[in-house]
Amino acid sequence: MAFVKITEQPSLYDNLEKKSVLEILQDINTEDQKVALAVKKAIPQIEKLVSQIVPRMKQGGRIFYMGAGTSGRLGVLDASEIPPTFGMPPTLVIGLIAGGDTALRNPVENAEDDMNRGWEELKEHNINEKDTVIGIAASGTTPYVIGALHAAREHGILTGSISSNPDSPISKEADVAIEMIVGPEYVTGSSRMKSGTGQKMILNMITTSVMIQLGRVKGNRMVNMQLSNQKLVDRGTRMVSEELGMDYDQAKRLLLLHGSVKKAVDAYHAENPNS
User: Fold this and answer.
1) For this structure, is 31 an active site residue?
2) Which residues carry out catalysis (predicted)?
3) Is residue 120, in this structure, part of any structural domain at all?
């Protein structure tokens, strides 16, 4: 089957500059509604990847996201949200973007075309067989990502990919290929739109399900979140209050003493075994 770049096909809409603001917004929303359905079709592959990541992370493994442009930025974004949300160290989920941190705000010329750079960066992080490398590329053709996945696989490291084109080169380098086919973009080729939205959804699904499996959520609560601002301290206080049936001020003192909801609740039960 020939490789077709659906991400580069013409938009289903034309003469965009002649449309009203309302028409533009409605059309974009119509297209966005296709994204969740495309992600739904990919759930079997997402499950397959998560099921292989969890035992590796239980042995000390890490997740590395690799991407360029929007795809790279979304990987860095998801990785950066794991410590505050789940109280994990920032070394467990790592986002690498072609061109380095400069590329988060500014395009770095030709960075994504270097087939060897991705693997060199992974080696700088002492990558090993407990780790997982997930390549993100809407087109599925980014050399920086393809090269990293190819080398990782050669070294016996679990690889996954997220792309918006079927049977792309990136899929061929992945043990588990997640293909989310969202169709042509509203602005032709602008994969920051539907493809980017779908990538964000899938990254949320991967790390949230992994963290739940690793015991970082209790009931439906982020019991290990970092208490980095007043909103989160308030949220944590209410969790402790509800869990232990104590008043707000007492719960807040306990929370701040121990630093997380889980530690506060565990310490309370240890001191009050009959509670």
Assistant:
1) no
2) 81, 112
3) yes
Q: Which of 8, 23, 47, 81 is catalytic?
A: 81
**Residues 245 and 162 occupy one common structural domain:** no
In the residue annotation, 47 being an active-site residue is answered as: no
Q: In what order do the strands lie in the sheet with 176-179?
A: 93-97, 63-67, 132-136, 158-163, 176-179
Quote the CA–CA distance of 111 and 236 in Å, as a whole number.
42
Catalytic residue among 31, 112, 121, 173: 112
Evaluate whether 30 touches 22 at the Cβ level (below 8 Å).
Answer: no
Rounded CA-CA distance 153/159 in Å is 6
Q: How many structural domains does the chain have?
A: 2
Spatial distance between the Cα atoms of 22 and 250, rounded to a whole number of angstroms: 51
Output the pTM of the full model.
Answer: 0.92
Domain with 71 in it: what CATH number?
3.40.50.10490
* Residue 23, pLDDT score: 98
Residues 200 and 247 both lie in one domain: no
Across the 275 residues of the chain, what is the mean pLDDT of every consecutive 10-residue run? 85 97 98 98 98 97 97 97 93 96 89 94 97 97 97 98 96 97 96 97 98 92 88 93 92 92 91 82
The reply to whether 223 falls in a domain is no
